[in-house]
Amino acid sequence: MKDEIERNQGTHGDESRAWFECDDGWGPLIADLESKLKVLSPDYTISQVKENFGGLRYYANVGDVDAETSKRFYDLIHEAESKSFEVCECCGQPGQLSRRGKHGWYKTLCSTCAERMNFEPVREAGTATP
Ligand SMILES: [Zn+2]
C-alpha cells in the first residue's frame, strides 16, 4: 500500500492543478484537427488552445487564404470543439460534460474519470424544464 501524499505538494493556492495531470484525452482530437487544418492552410498559426467550461477552445489564424478556405478552416475548428464535449478529456473514452461540486468546475469526462476526480455528470443545460 503506497501513500500518495507526494501528490499534494505544491500548494500554490490553485488546487485545480492537482488533478489536472491527465488531460491527454483530447490529444488525438487535436492532432486530427491540426492535420486537416494544415491541408487547408499550411501557414496557419495557433493563438491558443485551452479547455473552457468543459470543452476544447482552439484559437487559430487561418492566414492568407480565400474566403471559402477560411470558412472551412473555422468550420473544422468548431467541429472539433463540439466533438470535445463527447470525449473524455482525460483518457479519450466517450465522455460527457461533468461538474465538480462546489467549485462549479466543468470538464468533459467518462464515468470512470468523473468518479475518480469527484465530478458528476451534468444534464443538458438550457433545455431543462423548470
Ligand atoms: Zn476518462
TrEMBL record:
Can you tell which superkingdom this protein's organism belongs to? Answer: Bacteria
Q: What is this protein called?
A: Uncharacterized protein
Species annotation = Tessaracoccus defluvii
